[in-house]
Structure formats: C-alpha cells, structure tokens
Amino acid sequence: MFSGSIPALVTPFGDDGAFDEPVFRAFVDWQIEQGSSALVPCGTTGEAATMSIAEHNHVVAVCVEQAAGRVPVIAGCGSNDTVVALEHVRAAKEHGAAAALLVPPYYNRPNQEGVFRHFEVLARDGGLPIVLYNVPARTVTDIHVATMARVVAAFPDVVIGLKDATGEIARVSEQRLACGPDFCQLSGNDDMALAQHAMGGKGCISVTANVAPKLCAEFQAACAVGDYAKALEYQDRLFPLHDALFSDASPGPIKYALSRVRPSFPKGLRLPMTWPSEASRALVDAALQHAGLV
Asked: What CATH number does the domain located at 4-226 have?
C-alpha cells in the first residue's frame, strides 16, 4: 500500500508556540512537489507528544486537506493510553487519512499480551488500516516478532505494514518470514533504508526527507528498480546528513536544517525540546554542504 520516500513531517511552531498552519500547508505542497510518496503528520519528529488531543487531530486534518488526494496520509495516532489512541485513529479516519501509524504503549511497559490487546482494540474498532511502529529506543516496549505475526494473522486486512526503527536489520527477514512477503516493511532509520530494501523493504518513513525530499525520493526510486549502484551514490551523499540530524535531540537538528534550506520556516520547538547545540549545528551545516543542499 505504501512505498518510497515518506517524510515524518516536522510541525512548524511560531515563536509563541502556536501551530503555524499556513507554513505547514506550504510545506506539504513542497514535499509533494519534490516527490514524496506519502506523508506522516504527528509522529515523533512532528512533536506530537507536546500536542493536545484536539490540536493533534487538527494537524492531521490540515495535512489531509492540503494533500488533497495527491498522496496518502499516514496519521500518527500513537498513545500509551489505548482509549486515546483509538480516539486519534477514529478522528484520522473521519478526516480522510489513509492509515494510522501506531507505536506500542510507551512508559506503561506492558507485556506482549498487553501489546497484542492494545493493537487488537485499535484494529478491531478504529476503522483504518494500521502501520505498526516499532521504536523500542523511545517506547522501551518492543513489538516482538511473534506478537507482530499474531496481530497480522488476526487482522490481515487491517494491520498492513510496519515502520521498523529497531536498528536491527536482521528483523526485516524475520518479519518477512513471520508476517508474509506482502506485509509492507518501511525503514524507520534513514541510514538503514538501503539495506532494508535489499531484504524486501518498500520504503522509508524518513526524517531526512523533511529537508532533502527530492534526493530521498530519487534514492528510493533507484532502490525500487534494483539500481543499487545508483542508490549507493545517494546513500554516500546523504549519509552524513542522516547522521547529523541525530547529533542532538530530535527534532532540533532537523528544524535547524530546515531553517538553512527554507529560511522562512519557523524555528520554534516546544519544551522540553530545545535548539540544537553549536556542535550539532556545525555537523548539520557540513552535511548539508556535502549533500549539495546549501
């Protein structure tokens, strides 16, 4: 259902901390024009953890409206509260999102039965296709491969894919064997997207695509046709940027990078996130230059 370069969109906040809707709409247009194949609002990079439920759902609605059917929208809907996650999924469906991106509950630290039951409710009652999002470095909770396979077997027409940010590349093959070759695996780590493609992946939900959408789209296009020599050239060009964008707490570095490439983009971050350090900014500057973006 999904493939290619899919930016995990940053959310523009003004100096007063308010959501800058006109800038966001223009950003959505730019992403589509540059070749992004789908959009993910209200994920980690979008600072969803700092949004109220109403604001979160509004940002998703704006994204869907502005995309206007040109590309699908995978709405970030995760919460450590199953009821709140369900509310997000239902709102995303109402606003016209194509799918919901869902992490396992964070902080609560449920066991694997709890992880399954959480996704069971969302798959049964949410009304949208689900892309699982496994990022144990942030959630602490891991979706074990056996649990993933159990969810997919129970809801094969609903739980359709995965954003894998475990950093464990061998899982791509494990999950392919457990969940089937049609289960859509998307990389959650820009630096591992090339390797994941070779193992059966279909694309990347990307941080780097926020600032380099055209290059990321061209990289994914090369992977899709098996032109790994060309893809490797893009990998070498983009790798320093993939690395630099996590040289300080995200999304600080990506917002700084955007301020360099799109100077009108607001620099606001919501606490507890802060502007990246001088050292991080220097790494981003060098990486943008290496990629030919400045």
From this structure: 3.20.20.70
